Amino acid sequence: MARASNNKIKIGVHWKNSLSIDISSSTSPRHPKLIELDPNVPLNDYILKICDDWKIPLSNSIHYALRYDDTHKFVTEQNRFQIPTGQVFYLSLSHEDEVQDILKYLGSNDYQRYDSTVLERLKLAGEDETFALEFVKQNGLQYLLKLFTNDGKLNNYETFTPNLLRSLHNIMINQQAIRWDNLESIDTIIDQLIFGINTSKIPCLHSSSAMMILHSIINIESKYSSKIIQTLEISHLLDYCNKQHDIETQYYALALINVIMSKSDQIVRSSLVRAMSNITVSTRLRELVQLIITGDEHSNNDSFTSMDTSMQSTRHLTRSSLIQQLCLLQRFYLNELYTNSMNTSPDRFDTKYRDMIMELRRSAFDTDLLLSDQSCQDLNTRVSSGNINETISISTMNPRRVEALQRDYERLGFQDLREPIKD
Predict the structure, then answer these.
(1) 46 with 37: CB under 8 angstroms?
(2) Chain-centre distance of CA 217, in angstroms?
(3) 132 and 219 part of one domain
(4) 195 to 147, 257, 263, 311: CA distances (angstroms)
(5) Which of 119, 184, 285, 314 is the most buried (most CB within 10 A)?
(6) Which residues pair with 89 in a beta bridge?
């Protein structure tokens, strides 16, 4: 939401030594600064003042920008009005210079120069829309793809580092800078990722990044979606859900399975049901659910990060995120498992279903005070009378008792509160 033009806010700016910016060291310390940001004053004026205080040559001030300390996104004149007061920033190369500096490394034929620092910078900057568009504009994707397609050691995934995969993912999904279908050699990359996941040859540290890419491609209904759905083996994806893997890998494995279920045909969905019905797989999923319920050392803040620091994302996963994916998977599983039952009209006069519903309600609410003793006696009388229409449709009961029963049915998860047998 845009802020009124006369509002001033206070922000903090500090120096980061880990940015690999080519600036000569200063004899005086670069202390953090507290700045009152006036929306009517150009950002360049503030950056010029910061450079002066930190003894950075003023001629270079046009090459720098402020970036959020937590999300690493760039501050521009267009988005500065979204800055909340008290936000902390650090001085960085501008998005144009950051692209050019990273491309100096990607443009080299010496793949050994792609150290973790450069790729980490690319991964973080890739989440910013301004950077992503500039990176694509300067043909950065062409350099990035050389790491996938021109290295003779591709098959052992030596070059498929987590940061490289995540950089590609972040840039591609950023405001649809370019579609996956238009990306050169994407079919080769997809083949390698699928092969690695299906054969478990892809390193653990790479798996979540690989699944992020495949999920994104399927989700936008790319022309490669069908290929991925048909060739990815559900059983191997379920292997990544066990408790031996880190939370991020579990989350993206579940997310990938769910998007496959939502986009696939009956054959693929049936194969998932068979896979999940396997005793080993079902045991692993139960262990995962139990792990979430009991919690661990992260339970106090409801937040999970990757077990390896190199895999940590700026978008932290929460326990709720994992629970959502598990619930979605369960819904797909149960819907598929009981498709035939759901498509079959219930026999309204089948006492088995009547007894099941009444016993379910009795077990859940027998001691509940929502219904009076008289209501329960009345209900038992109707059950024993064998009048299924009166018992299930409850159309002739006292309105207050009907309301109480319907409230029970709703709490039990029924959708048709008047005739729950239809569910």
Answers:
(1) yes
(2) 14
(3) yes
(4) 18, 16, 21, 21
(5) 119
(6) 13, 68
Least confidently predicted of 56-70, 73-87, 141-155: 141-155
| Domain extent at residue 26 | 9-93
Give the distance, in angstroms, between the CA of residue 207 and the centroid of all CA atoms in the same chain.
Answer: 14
The verdict on 261 and 228 lying in the same domain is: no
Question: Is it the case that residue 130 has pLDDT exceeding 70?
Answer: yes
| Locus of tokens 């920008």 | 65
Q: Let me know: does 196 contact 202? Beta carbons within 8 Å.
A: yes
Mean pLDDT for all residues in the chain: 76
Structure token pair of residue 41: 């004053």
Give the pairing type, strands 317-318 and 303-304.
Answer: antiparallel
Q: How far is CA 322 from the centre of its chain?
A: 9
Identity of residue 100: Q
Which residues, other chains included, contact 69 with Cβ-Cβ below 8 Å and sequence gap of 6+? 14, 87, 88, 89, 90
pLDDT, one tens digit per residue, over 178-211 is 788 888 788 888 988 898 888 876 766 678 888 9
Each residue's pLDDT tens digit, 227-238: 999 999 888 888
Q: Say whether pLDDT at 353 is over 80.
A: no
Residues belonging to the chain: 423
pTM above 0.85, yes or no: no
* Per-residue tokens: 217: 């491609």
> CA-CA distance, 186 to 141, in Å (whole number)?
11
For residue 337, tell me if it sits in a domain: yes
Sign of CA dihedral 199, 205, 211, 214: negative
Q: Could you tell me if 112 and 194 lie in one domain?
A: yes
